[in-house]
Design goal:
By secondary structure, the protein is of the alpha+beta class. The chain folds into two domains: 137 residues, 3-Layer(aba) Sandwich (Rossmann fold), CATH 3.40.50.10330; 159 residues, Tumour Suppressor Smad4 (Sandwich), CATH 2.60.200.40. The protein is built from ten helices and 18 strands. A six-stranded antiparallel sheet has the order 7-6-17-14-9-10. The longest helix is centred in the middle third of the chain and has 16 residues. The chain starts with 20 loop residues before the first strand and ends in a 9-residue tail after the last strand.
Length: 326
């Protein structure tokens, strides 16, 4: 039995400042104590006189269910859905919010926080809550792959493997950018398999052999690794990034170039903007692993990448500290 599609509600363009806040807090995100984070949020919202509910999610598998509950409440009461966690948590809540006509706010708790940093949303919980209470609504572009939303990027091939290994290292050594970098170096020691992909780029067909394909929707991330075509995002497109078959030593070199914001200058890098891209692996692969904002799911092939018809009504700070984008 199929689940009925939720009705699309009104488009949110502004808030009264009195809306109820329905908060989904991932207990597994970030380096801080989740209950301490919950207490900080509750204290600040109580002091501000705002009505709110906090759903502290202990098991990440329950995030989609919690996101649906919060979104349904927000639709009925014309409230705001708030996601507190890393980019993966924000992605899970976005799946429920997108197209429902409710405003969306975030309290970043992750390691990289590309999505929050793009809009100058502080990673410090107290500052993020205060910014949320004095925020404006901005429609934000969302990427789609096979009807699944992504905020920062979606990828197949080597990148999902890097993420799986990174999570294993984080569980063992803790969450930090250095741990993430080290796990990537170790993963590249194993020569990654090559994929043969049929690409349909808006009617133009090509064959690409590559260890990975990444589709980006985040200007800050593209800027930091040195990929061109950031302007394509501003024109309502997505940006595809890939690499030709290279040696393990060259993969290390490309990783180093990315760390110094020069990845786009590498001869073995391929990048281009697009409106719609269909990707079909050669062979009989009916399902493959796809990483979306740090979370991995199995998807049917072919993969179809495009921009969502519904922008995300995101609450962004009225006054941005440049340090919050660094």
């Amino acid at each position: 039995m199929s689940t009925p599609t939720p009705p699309v509600c009104r488009t949110v363009t502004e808030l009264t400042g009195t809306e109820a806040l329905f908060i989904v807090l991932n207990a597994g995100s970030g380096r801080d104590d989740a209950k301490g984070t919950r207490d900080t949020i509750a204290r600040l919202l109580t002091e501000a006189g705002r009505r709110f509910e906090i759903d502290l999610v202990e098991d990440p598998h329950h995030l989609p269910e919690a996101a649906r509950r919060a979104t349904d409440r927000a639709v009925r009461e014309r409230g705001v859905v708030v996601a507190a966690g890393g980019d993966g948590t924000l992605n899970a809540v976005t799946q429920a919010v997108l197209g429902r006509g409710v405003a969306f706010a975030i309290l970043p708790q992750g390691t990289f926080n590309y999505f929050g940093r793009t809009f100058g949303i502080p990673s410090d919980t107290e500052r993020a809550v205060r910014a949320m209470l004095d925020a404006r609504v901005e429609p934000v572009q969302i990427g789609m792959v096979n009807e699944h939303a992504f905020l920062v990027n979606a990828s197949m091939g080597l990148y999902p493997t890097l993420l799986e290994d990174r999570e294993a290292y984080k569980k063992r050594y803790g969450r930090s950018r250095m741990v993430a970098l080290w796990s990537g170096l170790v993963t590249l020691m194993r020569r990654p398999p090559q994929w043969d992909l049929d690409l349909d780029l808006q009617g133009k067909r090509e064959v690409l052999r590559t260890p990975t394909l990444v589709v980006g929707n985040n200007a800050l991330q593209l800027e930091q690794i040195g990929i061109e075509h950031v302007d394509k995002l501003e024109r309502g497109q997505l940006v595809a990034m890939s690499v030709r078959p290279v040696s393990t030593l060259m993969l290390y070199w490309l990783l180093l170039l990315g760390a110094f914001s020069r990845l786009g200058k590498a001869e073995d890098m391929i990048s281009f903007g697009f409106n719609r891209l269909e990707v079909k692996p050669h062979g009989r692969r009916r399902h493959i692993k796809v990483a979306m904002d740090g979370e991995i799911v199995r998807m049917s092939t072919p993969l179809v990448f495009k921009v969502s018809e519904n922008p995300l009504p995101l609450l962004v700070p009225r006054n941005v500290d440049p340090a919050d984008r660094a």
